[in-house]
Structure formats: C-alpha cells, structure tokens
Predict the structure.
Amino acid sequence: MSRTNLDEMQVQKRNMVGNQAFMLLFYLLLIDIGLSGFGFRWLQYPMNVFVIMLGCMTYYLTRIIWNNSYVGPRPKNRNENIGRRIALGIGGAAFVAGTVAYLNMDSLKKPISTGDNSAMILFVFSIVLFIVLGIVSLLTKWQARNDE
Amino acid sequence: MSKNLKLKSSRAAKDMSQKDLADATGVTRQTINAIEKGDYNPSIKLCVSICKVLGKTLDQLFWEEDEDE
C-alpha cells in the first residue's frame, strides 16, 4: 500500500464530499442564472461566478480536512510543518499583492461595471485563502490533540 | 454496524496502539478507529493486511455470529 496516497476510507470520504461540492456548485450556478433571468443581480459578472466557486471550494476543502481526508498516512520522518509554511508564504504573498492591487485600483472611484475586476478578485481570493488557512491550522491542531 | 471488539482485543493483546496498527497496515489511525467502532467497512485487502499484522484469521477478527444462532 502506498505511503503517500490517501487510504481507502479517506478516498471514499473525499469522493463523497467532492460529489456534494460539485452538486452544490451546479445548483448554486443554476439559481444564479435563474435570478439573473428574473432581473436580480446580487453581484456583477464574473464576481458572482467567482464567489460561488470560491464558496464551493471552501466547502470542499473544509469538509475533507474535517473528515481527515486531505493528507494520507505519512512516512515517520517527514517534516509536517514544511507544507504549512509554504502555504502560509503563498497566502501572505497573495494577500500583499491583492491589497496593493486593490489600494491602487482606479476603478475604486468608478462604478464597478468598468469590467476590470481582476484586482478585486485577487483581493477577495487572498482574504478567503487566509480564512481557509486559518481553518486548516485550527483543524490540524484539533485533530492532533485528539490523536494524543 | 456493531463494534468490532475482537479487533480491539486482538490489538490490545499484541500491545499495539491504533497508531501502531495503522502504521503497520499503511492506513491512518482514524481508519483503524472507525473499523473498531463499526463506522467503516474495510475492504478485503485491508482486512487481510490487519489479520497478517495481528496474526489472526479473517474469521477470528471479522466474522460476526448471528444473535439467533
């Protein structure tokens, strides 16, 4: 049995959560299309799709981490903190880049319908990334405490 | 699904923790815990792996007698 992959129970749970997240994404996009058809726009395109996808991704990640299906059985000598440090570094860089881009964005003073939402997307993404990283850290600590 | 007390007692008889058994069979501790609690039905491959580590047969660890027998 491979030491780097998920074990059989983890694979089953990950697949189950993946199916749920996919169906959630499908129905939320469907509802969004329906609402647009009725003339109700809660966010400008493409932010609406992006927020829905981000929500579903967060749901998927949180659920598989909660079900202990994110990381498989580990070799004994592996340093567990490396992955977390890399993720924190990437998250920090994205947050700084997003904040700088957001603060320098000319479209802040104009209506959001200018069409250039890339800075806003990066800003929201970095914030959500930090929230997800925080949740991951908390869950990892909680699971480690339960293991002891 | 009922608890698998045979697995738990066999593991304890070998003086192994759930983590030890999990490491020996290549799964996570949570998977062994779920099998013992009856929350997860392992594949035959994992059953055989557990039996080999604990030195038992499939019957001894995973066969459940019906209550009316």
